[in-house]
């Protein structure tokens, strides 16, 4: 498997709010570096209520958050004492378990992120964010919701050098 496929999947899943609310919210709006199931579920429900989304069920959000976490963090098979099958997005190293049901985003260098995938994501973000602009600020690329910096959890300096 090539890491480019997983990085491109990450961009498609977490880079567009129309695709997956949980993934988009977690990578683009959740400010906390660490989180647990409950905190993430609560923040998504608050977001939905603020936008008056009437067709959102707490149980659905809870399941979505569980699916989100399982996409990045392999489960340990306690009976076998070994790691279960690793989810595709786990290889990206974007989220790691800290303790119990507490998780942490891993911001910083992403050596396996191919330049071509970053360029694709930057172009897509630019076309969505400022299609008529001749330039984009480093801050926008690194920190704006839906930006490569947010979706890939890059450090500001890596957004410049990628």
Q: How are the elements arranged and paired?
A:
Blueprint: H1 3-14, H2 21-28, E1 34-36, H3 37-50, H4 58-72, E2 76-77, E3 82-83, E4 95-99, E5 102-105, H5 115-129, H6 138-143, H7 148-151, H8 156-161
Antiparallel strand pairs: 1-5, 2-3, 4-5
Helix pairs in contact: 3-4
Structure report:
The mean pLDDT is 90. The protein is mainly α. It has two domains: 3-105, no CATH class; 115-161. The relative contact order is 0.17. Helix 3 (37-50) packs across helix 4. The chain has helices at 3-14, 21-28, 37-50, 58-72, 115-129, 138-143, 148-151, 156-161, and strands at 34-36, 76-77, 82-83, 95-99, 102-105. Helices cover 49% and strands 10% of the residues. The strands form two sheets. A three-stranded antiparallel β-sheet has the order 1-5-4. Strands 2-3 form a two-stranded antiparallel ribbon. The radius of gyration is 16 Å and the shape is globular. This is DUF4007 domain-containing protein. Pfam families: DUF4007. Residues 1-158 form the DUF4007 domain. It comes from mine drainage metagenome.
Number of helices: 8
Mean pLDDT: 90
Alpha-carbon Rg, integer:
16 Å
Which oligomeric state applies?
single chain
SSE order? HHEHHEEEEHHHH
- Molecular shape: globular
Sheet with the most strands? 3 strands, antiparallel
Strand content: 5-15%
Please report the total strand number as a whole number. 5
Cα distance spanning the termini = 22 Å
Class derived from helix and strand content: mainly alpha
The percentage helix is 40-55%
State the domain count: 2
InterPro entries: DUF4007
Organism: mine drainage metagenome
Domain DUF4007: 1-158
Protein name: DUF4007 domain-containing protein
């Amino acid at each position: 498997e090539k890491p480019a496929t997983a990085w491109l999947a990450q961009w498609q899943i977490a880079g567009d709010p129309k695709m997956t609310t949980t993934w988009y919210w977690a990578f683009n709006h959740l400010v906390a570096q660490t989180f647990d199931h409950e905190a993430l579920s609560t923040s998504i429900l608050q977001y939905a209520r603020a936008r008056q989304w009437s067709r959102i069920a707490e149980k659905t959000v809870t399941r979505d958050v569980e699916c989100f976490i399982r996409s990045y963090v392999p489960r340990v098979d306690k009976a076998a004492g070994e790691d279960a099958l690793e989810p595709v997005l786990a290889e990206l190293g974007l989220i790691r378990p800290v303790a119990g049901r507490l998780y942490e985003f891993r911001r910083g260098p992403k050596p396996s992120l191919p330049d071509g995938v970053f360029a694709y994501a930057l172009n897509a973000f630019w076309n969505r964010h400022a299609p008529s602009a001749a330039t984009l600020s480093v801050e926008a690329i690194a920190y704006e919701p839906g930006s490569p910096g947010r979706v890939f959890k890059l450090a500001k300096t890596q957004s410049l050098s990628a």
